[in-house]
Amino acid sequence: MSLNIEMVPVPAGSFQRDEGEENISVITKPYSLSKYQITRQQFLDIMGADPSEESDSTGMNDPVQMINWYHAIAFCNKLSLLEGLTPAYTVSGVSDWANLPFGDIPTTSSAKWNAATCDWDATGYRLPTEMEWMWAVMGAPTDGQN
């Protein structure tokens, strides 16, 4: 199954977060980021469910809606497994990500899911950190120059 998720490389680098000269963030390793938001169809294909409000959507190519952080990390792990990569996230009590039903993912605060850990060296998909996201959206150079 091909989801056609277009990834773009983001180089390591540094940037000034705000007007404070001392507020420099350093991204030490390059990473990749999806060029587009995950669509309803892509989410359905991986998770087996589409929780989006159909009245707020024009179709399955629109971004998925009504998901939380728990859904997002489960999506990352399930996609990683599908592509033969090592999942990045660990949640106590969840051992079979590939067969985790959508309905078993909490929709309200869960101590176990809140304590999820990320293996930063895993080969699988993960969400960007806040600083990685800022670096990318601020226009991190694509040629490796900063």
Give the class from helix and strand content and strand pairing: alpha+beta
| Shape verdict | globular
Question: What is the average per-residue confidence, as pLDDT, rounded to a whole number?
Answer: 93
Q: Given the structure, what is the number of helices?
A: 4
Strand content: 5-15%
What is the helical fraction, as a range of percent?
10-25%
**Adjacency order of strands in the biggest sheet:** 1-4
Helix-strand string: EEEEHHEHEH
The count of β-strands is 6
What does the main sheet amount to?
Answer: 2 strands, antiparallel
Overview features:
146 residues, 6 strands, globular, two-stranded antiparallel ribbon, alpha+beta
Structure overview:
With 146 residues, the chain is α+β, with helices and mostly antiparallel strands. 23% of the residues lie in helices and 14% in strands. It contains four helices and six strands, in the order ββββααβαβα. The chain has helices at 40-47, 69-82, 111-114, 130-137; strands at 7-10, 13-16, 24-27, 31-34, 89-90, 117-118. The strands form three sheets. Strands 1-4 form a two-stranded antiparallel ribbon. A two-stranded antiparallel sheet has the order 2-3. A two-stranded antiparallel ribbon has the order 5-6. Strand 2 and strand 3 (24-27) form a beta hairpin. The protein is globular. The N and C termini lie far apart (37 Å). The mean pLDDT is 93.
Write the layout of secondary structure elements.
Layout: E1 7-10, E2 13-16, E3 24-27, E4 31-34, H1 40-47, H2 69-82, E5 89-90, H3 111-114, E6 117-118, H4 130-137
Antiparallel strand pairs: 1-4, 2-3, 5-6
